[in-house]
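Q: What structure does this chain adopt?
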Amino acid sequence: MAPDRPFEIDPEEVERALREMGIEFRDLLGKAGDYIDRASVSTLASLLGQFVQPERTRPPKPEGETIGETGSGVWVIYSIDDAGEARVEQVFPSELEALRAHRDNTDEHRRVRFLPYGVPATALGTP
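A:
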């Protein structure tokens, strides 16, 4: 057995087979392109419909988007006094910035929360 042909296959035969396979594949792609060009939209949709999973229907949301989903609001660091009233100390545009500022907090009455626009700060005092 020769070291350059371990399975008694001539490298030239492999190259010829790959070249012929490439030519046949190119011809097949050309025929598929011609078919797609001639096909109407409904034919193409029915052809692709065999391979694509139908989209699952999702139950509708009970309401429209919530304020938190649209992102219209701010992140606040606030504290609650002994009477249960909230007082905003700092306002941040993103949660990450608020959490970084609140990272070294040792006061148990000081918290971070999302406050939607239009909601009064007194709502923070209620649990």
